[in-house]
Design a protein that fits this description.
The protein has about 280 residues and is of the alpha+beta class. Helices cover about 20% and strands about 40% of the residues.
Length: about 280
């Protein structure tokens, strides 16, 4: 790969106290002859204003910081590497002790790029005769969950326009391969190789013994429609994209999820499999 010479460092000041690690990386890059910009906090305006001429982005924080950055960088094609200052850090490639090695390898071109699939969700919400449509991207998952903590929601699922199933549950997760180790994993869904192209649909605490995760192809279109099954239930849901861009949904509203034409490009230093990473991060 090409030797990188121009960097943007994005620091999560809550994870990087007094910007200790961010300043250290900035100093090492400058001493090596690179040009460096430093943005403190995940501000869309601040990050976008600093992107001109940048060849790579270094993010210091955890997986949540990486997800927020991915939304801001959609469509830019600028590759990103994460330094883990969080807890588990599936998406953050570098641990603190390897910061010096990261700087040397990035500037020497000793790395490779990995494209991660993203999804697009179109939310359709009706209010009388008016219909509102909202479109968002997600790197990890689209989640339709109950708003009321004491009520299940009923969701009718369509795949490529055809009715697939109706599920009563706390909610439904439609995950990318990257997100398979996130909420999907907690809900009992399968783990898949992060650079694969597919969709994983996993119900959250379904009211059925037969409801299981289902894996779909990247060309499939999944629609989740909230329906009213019981007259005494409010059946109100909340759809979110990587935990943000939340929309309240009521019966008749729906969200349609497809593979996004854009990808999130990550800089990788090691070719570890997802199973090796899992063993290292959460294994015994």
């Amino acid at each position: 790969m090409k030797c990188l010479k121009s960097f943007l460092i994005i620091a999560n000041e809550q994870k990087d106290k007094n910007l200790k690690y961010s300043k250290s990386i900035e100093k090492k890059l400058l001493e090596s002859g690179a040009s460096v910009k430093l943005v403190v906090g995940v501000s869309a305006d601040g990050i976008r204003a600093a992107l001109e001429g940048v060849e790579a982005v270094i993010v210091l924080g955890g997986d949540g910081t990486m997800l927020r950055v991915s939304h801001i960088l959609v469509g830019t094609g600028i590759p990103v590497i994460g330094v883990n200052l969080g807890v588990v850090g599936f998406m953050t490639e570098v641990v603190k002790k390897d910061i010096n090695k990261m700087v040397k390898r990035l500037m020497a071109g000793d790395y490779f790029l990995e494209d991660r699939m993203m999804v697009t969700g179109n939310v359709e919400i009706k209010d009388g005769n008016k219909k509102s449509v909202y479109t968002h991207e997600a790197l990890n998952d689209v989640v339709l969950a109950r708003e009321n903590s004491l009520r299940l929601i009923t969701v009718r699922i369509y795949v490529n326009g055809k009715m697939f199933d109706t599920i009563e549950a706390d909610g439904i997760i439609v995950s990318t391969p990257t997100g398979s180790t996130s909420y999907n994993l907690s809900a009992g869904g399968p783990i898949v190789q992060p650079d694969a192209r597919l969709l994983v649909m996993t119900p959250i605490s379904p009211y059925s013994l037969s409801s299981r995760s289902v894996v779909f192809g990247a060309n499939d279109k999944i629609t989740l429609k909230l329906i009213e099954k019981r007259k005494d239930a409010d059946n109100v849901g909340l759809v979110s994209f990587d935990g943000t861009n939340n929309h309240r949904m009521t019966p008749g509203d729906k969200v349609t999820i497809t593979a996004s034409p854009t990808v999130f490009t990550m800089i990788k230093l090691e070719e570890s499999s997802v199973y090796e990473i899992l063993k290292k991060k959460i294994g015994n």
